[in-house]
Amino acid sequence: MATLAPTARTAPIAEVTAFLPPARPTRFAVLRHVGPNWYASVMGTAIVASAGVALPTESLGFAGPMDVPVLRAACVTVWALSALMLTLVLAARIGHWIHHRDRARAHLLDPSVAPFYGCLAMALLAVGGATLTVGRYMIGESAAVAVDAVLFTAGTLVGLTAAVAVPYLMVVRHRVRPADASPVWLLPVVAPMVSAALGPALIPYLPAGQWREALLLACYAMFGLSLLATLTLLPLIFGRLLTHGPLPLALTPALFLVLGPLGQSTTAVGNLARSAPDALTSTPPASTASYVSALDAFAVLYGVPVLGFALLWLALAAAMVVRAVRRGMPFSMTWWAFTFPVGTCVTGAAGLAHATGLIALAHLSLTLFVLLTAAWALAWTRTVRGLVSGALPAAPPVPGPATARTR
What we know:
Elements: H1 13-17, H2 39-54, H3 69-99, H4 101-108, H5 117-139, H6 141-172, H7 187-198, H8 210-244, H9 259-279, H10 285-326, H11 340-356, H12 359-389, H13 391-394
Helix pairs in contact: 2-3, 2-5, 2-11, 2-12, 3-4, 3-5, 5-6, 5-7, 6-7, 7-8, 7-9, 8-9, 9-10, 9-11, 10-11, 11-12
């Protein structure tokens, strides 16, 4: 989804793969350049369905999103498309590892590609969450809960692994400078925040008592894990922009990735607060009331300032994209960065609208949803066109070279 431009410190990817086993001859050459960034298209599609069902239309005097036949059919269709895309991308990535293992290993050694392994976790989580909220209207509640439970568990485990493994590789194997800082670095540490935001939906389906409370507190722990990791990276990213200027044209859409942890954390605190009364049944009633009240207040006190910063960053990122377009920014998989991060802002604003009853927040969520659907339609159309023409499979996911640190 994003690329890093070559720098003086990076070496050709051939230097990284020189010590790797040679690729086996294969009939599946089309899979050679299918990197982990392709999971971003799955995330960006699933969030459209999830954001659509979360819209606070009742606050504006309309029926609920799933009570409007056209919107309900659209959300279900997009969810089904995201599930199909997840299946296809998973199959392509498995084929990539089987038939192009040298390239797959090189991706892990490339600091501009390795962070995209966080997208695998978020794709699983996004489709699982959309299955529970939207897919249930097609496959039934019981099946939807089972699918979400499996995808949530797998996505959370992959996300926690990526949150440790990718930074580890960046420390001990990759070679990066402050000038190389990129919003792509956020991808592996944001994945646990997605688990924190989507986990509360499963709480009502767990046995009352310890199981529910354990999941609630685990989600809060993942919220903190992701938030603190994000706060360590954001100054590096913003500092890189101020001291080294705009990102390369092809990478400019990745600026929207900063919206991901902002919108997703706002969504997470809202969902967790709403789930607290069902989860804290094993605590004394007096303590439960105080906890619920505190968590409700925290959701608003945290969400409003963070959403405000998200809107500031959205304006800055949009201005940088306009500048890049005027300079000939080409289409690439980075354009999917326009989708999932904006979708998290939709769900974050919608959650605040439900919590506060403020109509302005409801209008904001609707406005952002219109932006999301337009961005998704553009990215999806251009991706399909690239696949049909063969331009996307024929090109490597990142023109930037890999850089590995030798021991």
